[in-house]
Amino acid sequence: MASEWSAKRVREMLEKNAASSGQASANVFFHDSVSADQLHDVAQQAITQAAKRLGRPPSLKVGPVHRLAKSVSVKGDPSLIAELSNLENVKAILPSEIDDIYPKPVRTRVVE
Question: Is-contact 85 93, C-beta < 8 A?
Fold first, then answer.
């Protein structure tokens, strides 16, 4: 069974979230070797590199930079976002919209 956060599963989630608008949003996490001061520039370079690999224009919009988490928010083509996960300095990608992150109750009973 594939991990819930495997690159394949994340790509599927991004495509599902983009079904209505054609745009997905995600947080791209970089390895610790990337300086927090360089996150925005590194993100732009990564987007350009991923777009070149797919033969597309670098059309992702970079949102807020999260220095402590070493991540940036991006929005755009889900396949381009997913391609970022194949780059050396990218640690992980997680969709911005996650349906169910809260724990579910184990024992429930009907209250009358």
Answer: yes
